[in-house]
Amino acid sequence: MARDRQPILKKCKALGIDPAVMGVNKNTKRNPKPNRRKVSEYGIQLNEKQKLRFIYGILEKQFAHYFELAEKSNGQTGEVLLQLCECRLDNVVFRLGLASTRREARQMVVHNHFTLNGKKVNVPSLQVKVGDVIGVTEKTRGSDKMKAIRETRGAVPVPKWLDMDKDKLEGKVVALPTKEDLDFEVDELLIVEYYSK
Q1: Which of 52, 50, 51, 10 is nearest to 32 (CA)?
Q2: Which end of the chain is more exposed for a tag (fewer CB within 10 A), N or C?
Q3: Above 70 in pLDDT, residue 158?
Q4: What letter would DSSP give residue 127?
């Protein structure tokens, strides 16, 4: 299994992402100088694609596959691509507040800490659908992390396309996500243009 071991802050600076999107608290006193190089149109499109890939932790081959699926489906390609990325199981776990970062959510899914519709799952890229219920396994419910999540009810805002029951540590997908539900800025049209060449 391939893993992304790039330094988060360095990559955030290169792609122009706020480190808070990645779950990193940046406590440095000096502000980094912005990159002042002139970037071509292709470079802007590539940067937008790399930014989306980095945020969701998706490798190139899988991201290209998501684009092919989005292109074949009904609806606007860019919006469907964002839906495919947002509906990954590891991202849903993160958005429900059951993990502090997407990377942590991915690791927790791989280590069998979650169930999907009552069955244990360990595939982070699994696509969730409307009506699916994501829960925490019985063994994990007693952990210190899950106790802390129960105590801090409402601390993490859950997007409107998800419904979270903090007492049961269970979340439900009530609708498909839209671009407005994202917790970062992205221009999906640039990504569509990049792959259309």
Answers
A1: 10
A2: N
A3: yes
A4: B
For residue 9, the SS3 value is helix
DSSP-derived secondary structure letter, 32: P
CA–CA dist 190, 15 (Å, integer)? 14
User: How far apart are alpha carbons 15 and 133 in whole angstroms?
Assistant: 34
Q: What are the tens digits of pLDDT across the range 95-128?
A: 998 888 888 899 999 999 999 999 999 999 999 9
Q: Per the structure block, which two tokens stand in for 25?
A: 């608290």
Alpha carbon distance 101, 95 (integer Å): 9
* Predicted structure pTM score: 0.83
DSSP 28: -
Alpha carbon distance 175, 142 (integer Å): 30
pLDDT at 29: 44
The tokens of 173 are what? Answer: 């997908």
Least confident of 79-88, 123-132, 153-162: 153-162
Q: What angle do CA 71, 102, 122 make, to 5 degrees?
A: 80
Chain centroid to CA 89: how far?
9
